[in-house]
Design goal:
By secondary structure, the protein is of the alpha/beta class. The protein is built from 20 helices and 14 strands.
């Protein structure tokens, strides 16, 4: 049993990670503030620390630096959000063992913790008990990781994945931004014989050239651990490879050539034994023709090409995706799953989704936050989706009203009443009696329209 400290200011994610570590048999403490977490590290001196990059009162990098300086034997795993991989590289320089990029799956966290403990024990000549702990698939994923869709095109992709999952040939995923290319890559990994090993993602658009080179091929002194080493035995997913600088394209082509040659000669070291998957949001053939992408690398990475369709070309999958995101929201927020009325669903299905699945996910989560009575209506959707119209006030041209087309009259009136009552309450400094008198309604009617119970409120004020 190891001692693990987890520091993250998001209570839902913090508790999920804590429960997983406890189920693995470890003594686990969880903290929402960096100050409390750092104090616990100094008091307990744990085996592993899992820390989020962004914490309210402290930077995760500061915690890593202080922890590594005082306790260099402690394995530190940093959790970083999408688009902050540069900070993750900085964390590795400061002494972190590894990092996880949100969104990640719980089994990614479990494997990384096990690797951290095995690395520590190997360095001290011990045998780790974590090697005896089987991976669990009973916990729900922390993020959306399933490849969802029953449309004709998605059915074809499912069939392709079944055929090529255990083929180690490089795969190129082409498709628009947000179309779900990473989910396809994860599905390939999860269906393959490599599914017990790590799945590591590197976004070529998020790092400057020098840091990108270090992530791919290591530092000149050989001290940094590359993404290929961290994914040993698993899958490396290079996102938006079309944005890889041309100098690094040449180095990567040579590296992949070396992997192929060593594999054919049965002399491939464990540190190079990975499945390579890349994605691009622009057709690579066009990039090659325009001189922006090396032709030799194109043929290396596109042995198996897969085109991932945009969401507008598989609109029949939208209800399935909406249902999945609603279930995710309910699980993460520990609330009852909201329902979507038929008019809101019609608007979701008819919208063109330029941001694809990513935009749909954000829209559903936003609607869950704004909806009333646990029911998503057209008024809860962004104006570009709900088709709101703008009209000027008859008495004042400076006032613009936004009318959500598709909302029932009763829903619209009820929402406007609540807004008007709320503003009148503010004017009367919260006095409900004055507000009822000003609106010329009884106090009981005011309470009903506010969704409150008169008797309960009187008891609380007594």
């Amino acid at each position: 049993m190891a001692k693990i400290i987890i520091i993250d200011d998001e209570p839902g994610i913090l508790q999920v990670m804590r429960k997983l570590a406890e189920r693995m048999g470890h003594e686990t403490s969880a903290y929402q503030s960096g100050k409390d977490g750092m104090a616990a590290i100094q008091r307990v001196v744990p085996d592993v620390v899992v820390v989020d990059l962004r914490i309210g009162d402290m930077s995760g990098l500061e915690i890593i630096q202080r922890c590594h300086a005082q306790f260099p034997h402690v394995a530190i795993i940093m959790v970083t959000g999408y688009g902050t991989v540069e900070s993750a590289v900085e964390a590795m320089k400061l002494g972190a063992f590894d990092y996880l990029t949100k969104p990640f799956e719980l089994d990614d966290l479990q494997r990384t913790v096990n690797r951290a403990l095995n690395h520590r024990d190997a360095a001290s000549g011990q045998t780790s008990i974590t090697a005896l702990v089987a991976d669990s698939d009973s916990e729900p994923a922390l993020v959306a990781s399933r490849l969802i869709g029953e449309s004709h095109r998605m059915t074809e992709i499912h069939g392709i994945i079944e055929k090529i999952a255990n083929n180690d040939s490089p795969i190129l995923l082409e498709g628009e931004f947000g179309s779900g290319k990473q989910m396809v890559a994860r599905a390939i990994h999860n269906r393959s014989k490599r599914n017990a090993a790590p799945f590591k993602v590197l976004d070529c658009s998020s790092l400057p050239e020098d840091l990108l080179e270090m992530e791919l091929f290591g530092s000149p002194g050989g001290r940094s651990e590359t993404i290929f080493r961290r994914a040993m035995g698993g899958t490396v997913f290079l996102e938006e490879i079309n944005l890889l600088p041309q100098r690094l394209q040449s180095v990567l082509e040579g590296y992949l050539e070396d992997i192929t040659a060593r594999r054919m000669n049965n002399s491939l070291p464990e540190t190079m034994d990975v499945r390579f998957v890349a994605s691009t949001n622009k057709p690579l053939e066009e990039e090659v023709a325009d001189g922006r992408f090396r032709e030799d690398l194109y043929y290396k990475v596109s042995v198996i090409p897969i085109n991932v369709p945009s969401l507008r070309n598989r609109s029949s999958d939208i209800p399935l995706l909406v249902e999945y995101f609603l279930e995710r929201y309910a699980a993460m927020s520990k609330r009852t799953k909201p329902q979507v009325d038929k008019y809101a669903m019609e608007l979701l299905e008819s919208y063109k989704w330029p941001g694809n699945v990513s935009e749909l996910q954000n829209t559903v989560e936003r609607a869950c936050a704004f909806c009333e009575d646990n029911r998503i209506r057209p008024v809860d959707l962004p104006s570009k989706i709900s088709q709101r119209v703008e009209i000027t006030d008859d008495e004042n041209d400076a006032i613009v009203h936004h009318l959500p087309i598709g909302t029932t009259l009763n829903d619209f009136i009820r929402k406007q009443e609540k807004i008007f009552i709320r503003e009148t309450l503010k004017f009367n400094d919260g006095s409900r009696e004055k507000t009822a008198s000003m609106l010329d309604v009884s106090i009981a009617t005011l309470y009903r329209k506010m969704g409150l119970k008169l008797e309960r409120d009187k008891m609380l004020s007594a």
